[in-house]
Amino acid sequence: MTEQTDRADDWRFKLFDSLSFPTRILKPDGTIIAVNNVFLERSGDQEAEVIGSTCRVNNLKHFPNQSFPCTNGEDCPLCRTVIRKMSQSVLLHTTGDDDEPHWEERVFSPILGGDGGVEYVIESIRDVTNVKRIEKLYIDMRELIDNVVQSSVSGIIAANRKGDIILANEAAEELFGYTAEEIRRVNIEDFYPPGVARDIMKMLRDEKLGRKGKLPVTHLEIISKQGEKIPVEMTAAIIYENGEEVATAGIFNDLREKLAVEQKLYESRVKIGQAEKMASLGRLAAGVAHEINNPLTSILMYGSIMREKLEPGHQLAGNLDYVLEDAERCKNIVKNLLAYSRQSSSTKEVLPFNSIVTESLKLLHDQRLFRHVEVVQQLIEQEVLIRADKNQICQVVINLVMNAVDAMDERGRLTFTTCVGEDHKTARLRVTDTGPGIKPEHMSKIFDPFFTTKAPGKGTGLGLSMAYGVMEENQGRIFVEQTGPGGTTFVLELPVVTLSNEILFDSIG
Ligand SMILES: Nc1ncnc2c1ncn2[C@@H]1O[C@H](COP(=O)(O)OP(=O)(O)O)[C@@H](O)[C@H]1O
Ligand SMILES: [Mg+2]
Predict the structure, then answer these.
(1) What is the CATH number assigned to the segment(s) 347-506?
(2) Residues paired with 488 in a beta bridge
(3) Distance from the CA of 463 to the center of ligand 2, in angstroms?
């Protein structure tokens, strides 16, 4: 086989030379007994110098600086082929003439002799640089996609056809409340309220809803590990392979923060609306009150003079008393209107917060209204100072008390509680009654001027609107903390004054 003259005619050599891969035929000890033409072309070696030499010597010539696994034993693919009598391969990473990385795969196939031992080994060399480059590109791309998925702030989840989670990024683990390990053991159906996962699949397959296999942005609730229902915005898609559904993927965005901001915006819009309404009604009330004040003063003055001049027991005395009584009531309404529209003067002073309860109760002390009302005081022991117009605030407390007593039909328990907020910046007075509560449909109107549910002559509908105006003027607020069939709690909140900011107040004026 090694005879040069035979080579041109021997069909085996013809076959050997027609192989498109560089190929060598080795003896088990590594002696090269034949190389094909492609090998000579690629390596630039002369046939005479190669034949009879060993693969190790030849490898060293071509890979002087690179480690070629030629040491005897398990590292050497030729030795392995001889020992195992099976094909072996080795992947060599080299640097090409272009200084770019190159890979070649060498496959060693044994040719067995009659005694069953390895007689020759065919070594074929394949350049797999392109395959390796594509493989590396693929791995890099996968890593990039993995990074994109993992670093996404949206929760991303993929599940196979059985619903087992096959991918979940960190944001998804956080959103659903599972660790990376736990989430793999959850079925996709557990992430939704019962039946929802099936509805999502139905929508995904429905061609009328966007493109088939794609779910446009949908708002729904998911269920976390802790059982919390979380509002989310999601999009989903079916993943197909050769037209077959193989998996589903979903992208989730937590809506809790967005909804909380929207709710706050809505509330502040309502507040602004309420404040505007109050302001315009205040101006109207002030106008009306001033107009009525003068004729009312005349009625009261001239009526009183007439009453004094009437003979005792005069038949018109009773009628005149009615006129004067009603005129007096009107005067009170005007007074309230002026207080509501903040047209009455206010004088602010620093005072102990608890004193507004004790002072108000003193003013109400002799009222027969309280005969069947138990009054409970739970006042904070620590001294808390506020800066407010005492008379105005006491009037507010009295209005709350009158409303509570009215609501309880003069029978029940009235509790006053004072405390400071967690930040120690605000003081709170809670006035709690055991009345029937405020109807939900009335809640948005109770602070409106002239809103009353009481019989004509009994209520003016000015108590709470006046209270609202006064609290605003004193940098505080009034609100209903809770109401229901068990009773109602109104809260008055005022800023706490500390000695240092009081000095500041005074120095500013
Ligand atoms: N403690 C309370 N319990 C139940 N309803 C109340 C309470 N306080 C106020 N309200 C409701 O708010 C309405 C407005 O109160 P207010 O402005 O003081 O006017 P008035 O007392 O003249 O009706 C009352 O008519 C009543 O319906
Ligand atoms: Mg009232």
Answers:
(1) 3.30.565.10
(2) 483
(3) 4
Of 485, 478, 376, 368, the C-alpha closest to 435 is 485
pLDDT in tens, 172-189: 999 999 999 999 999 999
Q: Give the ligand with the smallest distance to the CA of 485.
A: 1
Q: Is the CB of 412 under 6 A from ligand 1?
A: no
Cβ atoms of 268 and 280 within 8 Å: the answer is no
The DSSP call for residue 189 is G
Report pTM.
Answer: 0.48
* Cα separation, 139 vs 131, whole angstroms: 12
Q: Pick the residue whose CA is nearest to atom 8 on ligand 1.
A: 403
Alpha-carbon distance 475 to 82, whole Å? Answer: 96
152-254: CATH architecture: 2-Layer Sandwich (3.30)
* In the block, residue with structure tokens 């009455």: 344
Tell me, what amino acid is at 265? L
Q: What is the mean pLDDT of each run of 10 residues along the chain (509 residues)?
A: 59 83 94 93 92 90 71 78 93 79 91 92 93 92 92 94 94 96 93 92 83 88 94 94 93 94 88 73 78 89 92 89 88 76 72 93 75 93 92 90 93 96 92 97 90 86 88 93 96 88 47
d(CA 28, CA 320): 138
| CATH number for the domain formed by residue range(s) 4-127 | 3.30.450.20
